[in-house]
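Please annotate the following for my students:
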Amino acid sequence: MIVDNISLIKKHVPAMTADAIGFAELETYVSAAESWFKNNIAGQELYDFVDSHKTNSAVLPLVSRMERIIALKAFGDAVPALNLILTSAGFGVTNNEKIAPASKERVADLCQSLHTQCSEAVEDLLMFLENDDTYKDKWQKSPSYSLFTDSFLTTFEQFKAYAPYGESVAAIFPKNRMDFTSLRGKIRAVMAGKITAAASKEIVSNLLEKMKSKTLSDKQMQLLESLRFALGAYTLGLNETGDDFINQARSIIKNNPDVFENSKLDFAASEWTDKPIINLC
């Protein structure tokens, strides 16, 4: 286990008083949180690597991030089942019936805070892994890695930057990385059924490769920007907005035949300005 003692939980959950809650009371939730983390975020290989190297100082930045996620997830899931009291030092557990438990409102607020912090910690971990190639070979085998390789919007921060936010989509707009991760299937469907259909498989594949190698030219980056805006809009069901950005993308390709001359398209570039968008809805 990556988190195997109460001190680690206390380290990452300051709201909890270590002397009032024992590890035994949380062990079931920690075990479940570790399984959730391994199966949904880290993957078996990266998890096993960290678990066996958690005392190695070189790995501590990664270890600490993983500890934080597991601790927050475990305590957040445990809170509703614990007989919590609010002390001057934080939340604790009591079996003394004479001591009034913390109010339902405080407990609900604590749960919400812990799960929000957990989502933020997941985002921090994935951004760390994305920017550090040290663990790439192990991370790319995890469930979360594919989200960053087959989409023009690779992180939650990017999605927020390109997807149009407004009152009409407020209810479905992802509020955190967990919400964003749940859109993986939708984003893949939009990439395959709308973005690729409109821009061509060759262009999309080439842009994805250039993104990974960080070798995008200025014109390729300009095209990618338009397609990112389209992807964000389509994912939220804003098809008219997505169509506008697709038309913008087509104009970029048409006006730069020297850059995109090797692309195989369903129809000639000269027809794009008059031809309606096809197969997008």
